[in-house]
Write a structure and sequence with these properties.
Blueprint (H helix, E strand, L loop, with lengths): L3 H14 L9 E4 L30 H14 L5 E4 L2 H24 L10 H8 L6 H12 L5 H5 L5 E4 L6 H10 L7 E2 L2 E4 L2 E5 L10 E3 L5 E7 L18 E7 L7 E13 L2 E9 L3 E2 L6 E2 H12 L6 E9 L14 E8 L6 H14 L1 H9 L6 E4 L4 H9 L12 H9 L4
Parallel strand pairs: 1-2, 2-3, 3-4, 15-16
Antiparallel strand pairs: 5-6, 6-7, 7-11, 8-9, 9-10, 10-11, 12-13, 14-15
């Protein structure tokens, strides 16, 4: 559970930066929580939300996000748009692009249309909360007919901020894409830092682009292993951290729970009233390593984004990486290599020369990878394009409200993404 101090700090920080953010029924929530409703920001005040709690607990992720989107569209005077993950906001806006005529009709009639994953008894209860609103339906139709650049602020002109539960790692890719297109002109605020199910810190600077978190000493017991690892590793405590250094997180969440490495690496960005302020850097478990080269996910993502910048007109939607050994015979008979699956907008196909740009970027960014490629012990990277919406469907199949890993190791998900390959 979220400490009361964390909830109060969040509310105070949000109100100070965005004065109308705590207005009654002025927050819309887009978050799938099949085990029961939870507010990603951690403060389940029903008076803040215009979206019903029951909608987020539907058995289907797609149905939950569409129903929450419909209730959000009813309220023109939104001040806060909140999502558990940036990917959930993205997928809800994909549903808006695909089905805005049907959503406008539902708004005009005060109706909730039947859909897969929405039980009939739940649909009837939620529909009872709707009333016909032809004016709002006409506004939705007019704005969507103009295109979707900046659509979020056009639909909700009083919106002040987008709150997301996670904004680092691969979720940052979606935050950046939303900032550049659908949510143009709006700040993104990630209020809390969580690891291994425990709340560790709060972001006191909501208007800054890159999230950084004040570690609160009495929320969990934290220890830190200096990076790179020392010969005889020894953990240090909060008062022993140095600004600018990186540390692996060792966590004991509550008294009596076992002590464990959380798999998170943090950089100390500074101090606030003697408490360290940290930036999450990477997850140790998310790395590609076919010959022991160990390329972290976030650095691989940087190389991929650099390669995409060399493909005119292309914008990266999402990606996953796979070590070829996990694909078995389908990966071919060459040396172990990386298989990369990407979804792009603005480009339908890539030449062989363009595909090689990613392998070239990896060689430039990682000398150890270049060495293994030169020796032939790592084969050429293989890049595959997947169809539009492939990653939205993959998240639905994953059946988890947690962020999806970008280094895939589950065969069921590998087969799903392979089936979406178009070239």
């Amino acid at each position: 559970p979220l400490p009361a101090q964390g909830s109060l700090l969040y509310l105070d920080t949000l109100r100070a930066a965005f004065p109308k953010a705590l207005a009654s029924r002025a927050t819309a929530l887009l978050s799938w929580a099949p085990g029961g409703h939870r507010a990603p920001a951690g403060w389940p005040l029903p008076t803040l939300y215009c979206t019903p709690a029951e909608a987020g607990a539907l058995p289907s992720r797609a149905a939950a996000l569409r129903v929450q989107l419909l209730f959000a569209l009813r309220t023109r005077a939104l001040h806060v748009l909140e999502a558990g993950l940036a990917t959930e906001l993205h997928d809800a806006l994909v549903a808006l692009r695909a089905s805005w005529p049907g959503l406008a009709e539902d708004l005009a009639l005060g109706r909730l249309s039947p859909q897969p994953g929405l039980p009939e008894d739940t649909r009837c209860r939620l529909q009872a909360l709707l009333v016909p609103d032809a004016t709002r339906a006409a506004e939705l139709q007019a704005e969507c007919a103009l295109g979707f650049e900046g659509i979020v602020q056009r639909l909700w002109p009083q919106l002040e901020v987008v709150v997301v539960g996670t904004a680092h790692g691969a979720e940052q890719l979606y935050c950046d894409a939303l900032r550049q297109a659908d949510c143009k002109g709006l700040p993104f605020y990630c209020p809390f830092y969580r690891a291994a199910g425990a709340l560790l810190g709060i972001n006191m600077w909501p208007k800054e682009m890159a999230p950084r978190f004040l570690l609160c000493p009495d929320w969990a017991f934290c220890e830190f292993l200096p990076c790179p690892a020392e010969e005889e590793p020894r953990t240090v405590l909060l008062g022993e951290l140095w600004e600018g250094r990186e540390y692996g997180l060792v966590l004991t969440a509550r008294p009596g729970e076992y002590r464990c490495r959380a798999g998170e690496v943090l950089r100390v960005a500074g101090f606030h009233k003697q408490c360290p302020v940290v930036e999450p850097i990477r997850r140790e478990s998310q790395a590609l390593s076919v010959r022991g080269e160990s390329i972290p996910e976030e650095r691989f993502c940087r190389s991929l984004c650099r390669a995409v910048g060399m493909w005119p007109g292309a914008r990266l939607v999402d990606y996953v990486c796979v070590e070829s050994a996990l694909l078995g015979a389908s990966s071919g008979a060459c040396a172990p290599h990386y298989e990369v699956f990407v979804e792009l907008r603005g480009l339908r196909d890539l030449s062989e020369g363009q595909r090689y740009k990613l392998d070239q970027c990896l060689q430039e960014d990682f000398p150890i990878y270049k060495s293994f490629r030169f020796k032939g012990s790592i084969g050429p990277l293989r890049l595959h394009l997947v169809g539009a919406g492939a990653f939205t469907r993959l998240r639905e199949a994953l059946g988890s409200p947690l962020p999806m890993p970008r280094v895939l190791r589950e065969e069921r998900l590998l087969h799903l993404i392979q089936s979406a390959v178009i070239s």
